Amino acid sequence: MTAQSGARRKWLDRYGSRLVQVAFVAAILLLWHLATTRWGVNKILLPSPLSVWQQFVDVIRKGEFLADLQITLMELAVAFVVATVSGTVVGYVISRSPYLIKVFEPLFAGIYSIPIILFLPLYVLFFGLGPASKIALGITMSFFPVVLSTIAGFGNVDRVLVTAAKSMGASDWQLFRHVLVPAALPVVLSGLRMGFTIALLSIIGSETIASLAGLGHRIVNLAENMDMARMFAYIVFVIIIAVFLNTAVSALDARGKRQR
Amino acid sequence: MTQAATNTAISVRNVSHSFGEADEARHVKALLDTSLDVTRGELLCLIGPSGCGKSTLLNVMGGLIAPTTGTVMVGDKPVHGPMPNDIAFIFQENALFPWSTIHENMILGMSFQGVPKAERADRAQRALEAVGLDEFAGHYPSQLSGGMRQRAALARALSLETNILLMDEPFGALDEQTRMVLGEDLSVLLSRSKKTIVFVTHSLGEAVFLADRVAVFSARPGTIKEIITVDEPHPRKSAFMTSARFHQQRDQLYDLLHDEIRKSMAQSGKPKRAYEDQSSRAGPAA
Ligand SMILES: Nc1ncnc2c1ncn2[C@@H]1O[C@H](COP(=O)(O)OP(=O)(O)O)[C@@H](O)[C@H]1O
Ligand SMILES: [Mg+2]
Q1: Under 8 Å between Cβ of A187 and A152
Q2: d(Cα B54, Cα B173) in Å, to the nearest integer?
Q3: Do residues A30 and A156 share a domain?
Q4: Do B64 and A163 touch (CB under 8 A)?
Q5: Which of B89, B94, B140 has its CB closest to that of A167?
Q6: What's the A156 CA to ligand 2 centre distance in angstroms?
Q7: B203 touches B285 (CB < 8 A)
Q8: Considering only CB atoms, which chain B residues are within 8 Å of A163?
Q9: End-to-end Cα, chain A, rounded Å
Q10: CA-to-CA distance for A58 and B47, rounded, in angstroms?
Q11: pLDDT of residue A260
């Protein structure tokens, strides 16, 4: 192998995967472009990328998205906070007793595997078409990954660490704060991250099914009015918001897990 | 305080311990009517077949397990729970908090024990120097070798400045060479510090090399079958290990243990690793 090809390999190692990812997205955009300009796909079904871009710029410039974004983010924040608090508290209490773990862990794992979104009509009947039903569904769906990971995190703390801390005189609070929490944190954080993703999916998803406002609602509304270019512009907007939020949550997760 | 009490660091009286309730399937009689006096400043080794109750006795001494019957006194205080001001523990492995550096581990231990904040950094530094790890204060446990981790665990225990150290197979997970070196270091440390140490080991050579007295356990339910004395001043040199007396005492220990190991293996049903193998593989004796 020559020195030059060695350097090239290093460059490829570092940027190769990024390059493929960018090329992949570019290829999709190109196919999309060709489909609308050359292959005669109906504009009503699939607007051209250019028109979507123009609509996107318009949406951003007018700030028209603000009201819907606020509603969706508010629903997400409330659902995630409630699921996090209830899931970690309930999970911690259960993790303290092998008996409770034996009873509730399989139960929660079972419920977690049900597609809870099927109960959306029921939630709408109970909580109405407004944000309350979205929040309630988001809480229900993200509670389970949070509670399960909290049980796993606090339930599997290495016994020798607990024994060592007690032998050195740790109080209950010190044991919790300096041993149990740091030991459980990585697992709990993974659960929170999962819970966040699920809350986002279920809230936007349920907004598209039955709602009065929110980004999901707006998208369905535009589709019903056959305003396809603007609808696609909103989809792009939601994707950007979702990627941004997930990146932020992942970064927090990674920060909490660092250094061990 | 009587003369006897001043010379005895830990006194164990008629201690029995069972795990689980009597009618449960997993009921285990771990210790049976054991009595023992640990003299101030000595290093006492506990040796016996695996599963005979050595760790149980150590944990009872340190207040980590409340015995089913019997009493333990540390000095003139009855033991009812952990006594962080009198007793520090060192476990076989992985008892350092993996999310904290070595230095943070020591600070945390001292904060648990209640050492004033201002003293902690100094004490940590001194203890790390004593075990030769002062350059590694900022490392995480996972960045250190097994031997260094055990040194760090020892440093954390030393920083608590207790009169008593209880060590449960502290070198048990280490390779033979590392163990020999740590054994020698411990002997040096001991001769300086006047600490009382109870040290569980499954290595005959380690027991003879380190101990002032070796308590030999019977098979489960464990009790102390015999105590032999090793009359050799600390710090012990590696020359001691090659002396005829060392070998004679090691053989004496082996004779005492042999039958108990057979009994213990018969109890457990399946043959465990032969003790002969372990003693030739591990421990300073080799
Ligand atoms: N927490 C526990 N619950 C049930 N049985 C235990 C527990 N701890 C130890 N035992 C049992 O008690 C016996 C003595 O254990 P231990 O003191 O750890 O032995 P050693 O340290 O001599 O190998 C063993 O048979 C072990 O299986
Ligand atoms: Mg043991």
Answers
A1: yes
A2: 17
A3: no
A4: yes
A5: B89
A6: 21
A7: yes
A8: 64, 89, 91, 95
A9: 38
A10: 81
A11: 53
CA nearest neighbour of B36 among B253, B256, B224: B224
Answer yes or no: are the C-beta atoms of B210 and B253 closer than 8 Å.
no
Q: Any CB–CB contact under 8 A between A58 and chain B?
A: no
| B14 three-class SS | strand
What CATH architecture does domain B3-86+163-278 belong to?
3-Layer(aba) Sandwich (3.40)
Residues A28 and A65 occupy one common structural domain: no
- Residue indicated by tokens 């293996």: B265
Note whether residue A56 is domain-resident. no
Has this prediction a pTM greater than 0.80?
Answer: yes
Residue A35 sits in the same domain as residue A150? no
Whether residue A48 is contained in a domain is answered as: no
Residues A66 and A161 in one domain: yes
Q: Are residues A196 and A76 in the same domain?
A: yes
Contacts of B111 in chain A (CB under 8 A): 174
B96: left (phi over 0), alpha (psi -120 to 50) or beta: beta
Give CA–CA dist B35/A233, Å, rounded. Answer: 81
Q: Where are the domains of chain B?
A: 3-86+163-278, 97-161
Q: How far is the CA of B164 from the centre of ligand 1 (A)?
A: 23
CA atoms of A193 and A146, how far apart (whole Å): 9
Judge whether A51 lies within some domain.
Answer: no
> Which H or E run contains B46?
strand B43-47
How many structural domains comprise chain A?
A: 2
Rg of the Cα trace of chain B?
A: 19
Q: Is residue A52 part of a domain?
A: no
Task: Grade residue B269 by pLDDT with cuts at 50, 70 and 90.
Answer: low
pLDDT digits (tens, 9 = 90+) for B181-231: 888 888 888 778 889 999 999 889 899 999 999 999 988 778 888 899 998
Q: Do A86 and A205 share a domain, yes or no? A: yes
Query: Is residue B108 within 6 Å of ligand 1 at its C-beta?
Result: no
Which residues constitute the domain of residue A6? 2-41
Closest Cβ–Cβ partner in B97, B114, B160 for A161: B97
> Which CATH number goes with the domain that contains A90?
1.10.3720.10
Report how far residue B180's alpha carbon sits from residue B175's, in angstroms, rounded to the nearest whole number: 9
